[in-house]
Known about the structure:
- The strands form 3 sheets. Strands 3, 5, 7, 10, 11 and 12 form a 6-stranded mixed β-sheet that branches.
- This protein has 2 domains: 3-165, Sandwich (Immunoglobulin-like); 171-204.
- The chain is of the alpha+beta class.
- The model is unreliable at 5-26 (pLDDT under 50).
- It is built from 3 helices and 12 strands.
Amino acid sequence: MKLNLLTLLPAALLVAFIGSPEVRAQSTTPGYVLAFGFDQAAEFGNPGDVLNFSGTFSNVTANTVFLNSDSLTFSGPGTADDSPFLNGAPLTLDPMWTVDGNGNPTDSYSGSLFDITLNPDAAPGTYFGTFAILGGADANASDDLTADPTNVLDPFHQERFSVTVLAPAAVPEASTTISFGLLLMLGGLLIVVKRRADSERRPR
């Protein structure tokens, strides 16, 4: 049995919460809003690594929000996989402040969202991408729930992320390694020869 705590609070409080600066994401359809944030929006890795992005999003409206799909873009040298979100996120989020019979919130989700697999030959540098959750009033809705129509510079996909490919550690050239090894061998040989010569000069 679900208990909707929203009905116990004044409507004025709900309006004030939705209008607060903490609610960064807004749907293009009034009444369907998600507050969203990455756990870590900037990840670092070596060529060939698989980087996972996770986050939390919450329904901050009095309506049930359907989470139907997502929009994931990545401009870097690698592939993006949104199956963690598609397989892990719930189909809907209950109205804000709704909990189940055990007191667990059913108006939010925290977990894995997508993976970025870097190409083995990825060049060092920082690359960017965007992630948006699509849904709305029903199972057919495809509104961008992470859009902010009040931001004229970037009204869609405000949830940006970055991936920095690290430069591989320098590997000594083979010729340098061989030369260093020969020097060590010669040094050891000279020490042995010197000790033998010294022992032969000592009076018996």
